């Protein structure tokens, strides 16, 4: 009882430790997973948001160029340059300022002198830069737009030449400021902070404020000159930066993680405590039921694993009479049945194979026998006709000898396939082997071999066909004799109990040449032999005879060491052996009991 409690306690402690460790691992995995999931989703959103910002600026750039073209195509522009009338210039300016309220408009002559301009943020511009640009491109036809910046911010400027008779006569320049309002509108759509940097990493536009509520003036950007998006996690924010080569700027979006992470932390803490309480309840419950369930269930699992590896000898001891006890009893019966079925399947497969080979052997033997008889008759006739010629006489002797050898093989093949009548009776095993020893002793002595029987010589009876059994054991002993010189063959016979079942074990062991592994695998296959004069049916016949009697037969051999053939006879099954209503081997082979 104490042992059982100790085992149960160990299991509970192990389960508790595993669950506790699992809970902590789950907590940290969950934390990392959630952060990873957040980051992946945020990165995807940030990629899209960077595209949105770039597209907005690019669209504004294209829009500005379209407006510049509209102004350049206005007939009043040509009239202005033809008449050089200030009033016309002012009318043009007033007309388009009303239409394009957020755009600064400037009109220049070919030498870079300003004719008119709007009074909004065009004063922020560096006119010397514009003047130099115009003077260096007097003959070029230009429609272009780019981003410029100064201390006051970033601007998109669109340039278009005014032409007459395919020659430049002046310029229209439109300017749009990337204002805080412009960036704030985009921020409200994407719900992320926006920063714009020039090519020297100076902040030229932002939606971010400092702690005093003032828009920030500077911020360190990720150092990247590639168009590929770069991500970086800083303290409580995730940052994505991408360079826009068309505008020669870097765009940065910032997502603040602080509040989101705090909320997630509170949720994870609740989950942690709930998991802990649940785990504690499970462990307490398990402690109450493990003592009753663990051992028999473990035994059943072990038994199933044994069966899975092909071991059908494993039995579980029944320790109770409840449902688990019944399960154990059913398991033992199932194992016994599986073992029996496995043996029957192997026996039936082997018998079917041997029966098929037998029929084939008989067919081949009959086909060979007739033409062989004709050859033999003709050879004898020629031998009698030309017996005076020495070389002919010797040749015909060889022919006759080889024909006789072929006939002998054919007779063995026919014997292998021939129907035999089965006669069951009580056979004394010790007496049968004593007779075989007397029969073989002289032949074995010619090769210097010995035959030793180890038995108590008491009467051991089994039900069998005596002639068939004698032939089977005789074949085994002859094979042992053929495989050695000055060797010993041991015949060990014993009765024993195994799992409360009686069985008779017969072991025939020699110290001959033995067999290589590749030969051993095919030892019981018909027509497989390594002998130069063998037919390869001896051991196949032996196996067939043992299978007919439901004996288990196993062969073990090592090259250069010897061969051992073991025959196991189940006493109870042998007592029940009957061939009632059956006369011949073929009928037995067809049975599936």
Question: What would a concise description of this structure say?
Answer:
The protein is α+β, with helices and mostly antiparallel strands and about 600 residues long. The protein is about 55% helix and about 20% strand.
Draw up the topology in text.
Layout: H1 2-73, H2 75-83, H3 86-99, E1 104-109, E2 114-117, H4 127-135, E3 143-150, E4 153-164, E5 167-177, H5 180-190, E6 193-197, E7 203-206, E8 230-234, E9 237-244, E10 249-256, H6 258-308, H7 323-385, H8 390-417, E11 425-428, H9 429-445, E12 450-454, E13 461-464, H10 466-482, E14 488-498, E15 501-510, H11 517-520, H12 538-548, E16 552-558, E17 562-570, H13 571-575, H14 585-590
Parallel strand pairs: 12-14
Antiparallel strand pairs: 1-2, 1-5, 3-4, 4-5, 6-7, 6-10, 8-9, 9-10, 11-13, 14-15, 15-17, 16-17
What can you see in these coordinates?
- It is a single chain.
- This protein is of the alpha+beta class.
- Among the domains are: about 75-180, PAS domain (Beta-Lactamase); about 420-590, Heat Shock Protein 90, CATH 3.30.565.
- It is about 55% helix and about 20% strand.
- The chain contains 14 helices and 17 strands.
- The protein has helices at about 1-75, 75-85, 85-100, 125-135, 180-190, 260-310, 325-385, 390-415, 430-445, 465-480, 515-520, 540-550, 570-575, 585-590; strands at about 105-110, 115, 145-150, 155-165, 165-175, 195, 205, 230-235, 235-245, 250-255, 425-430, 450-455, 460-465, 490-500, 500-510, 550-560, 560-570.
- A five-stranded antiparallel β-sheet has the order 2-1-5-4-3. Strands 7-6-10-9-8 form a five-stranded antiparallel β-sheet. The protein has a five-stranded mixed β-sheet with strand order 12-14-15-17-16.
- The chain is elongated, with a radius of gyration of 52 Å.
- The two termini are about 45 Å apart.
- Its EC number is 2.7.13.3.
- It catalyses: ATP + protein L-histidine = ADP + protein N-phospho-L-histidine.
- GO terms for molecular function: ATP binding; phosphorelay sensor kinase activity.
